[in-house]
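Sequence in, structure out.
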Amino acid sequence: MIASVTGTIGQAGLDRVTVVVGGVGLLVHTTPAAAAASHRGDEVTLATSLVVREDSLTLFGFLTTDERDMFETVQSVSGVGPRIALAMLSVMGPDDLAAALSAGDTKALTTVPGIGVKSAQRLVLELKDKVAGMPRATTATTPGSAAVTTDGWRDQVAEALVGLGWNAKQAGDAVERVAVTAPADAEIAAYLRLALRELRR
């Protein structure tokens, strides 16, 4: 089990980063907000989870250990794989997700692409008690965030939302709503959080 990686950001995409450790570049899948907050040359420590499949080894990384723990916990429910687990954390964050599960808030859970009513009910049934005892806010080293000075953020945020499971129209509409109210020169991660908030309404 690879519990964490510490190294230098070599590349950052919309939902993944490459962390260079001892001269080896590790591809780490992460939430769009974490990826957007990472830039080349940052020193970073990510809490990680290694997903082993018959034909692949996939590393997922998180800025906090509670994100990583929640990622692994929700996958204990039948039908929830790494992609949906990552989408849940991208949309809600670990604390909001734990609160929704504890309160039986299936409506909040169904705002995540790929989670229907039955899946939400199953998540609550199986995890309500389990998440109540989970620790909160153990933070790993957070990379810096870059300000965005042009409208280039629109395409990046829309692409990240589509990657999480929304269709292009839903993503585009959310981006346009954010563009009306968002401050100029904000960080990409801030635009993404606002768009996710719009999609949860």
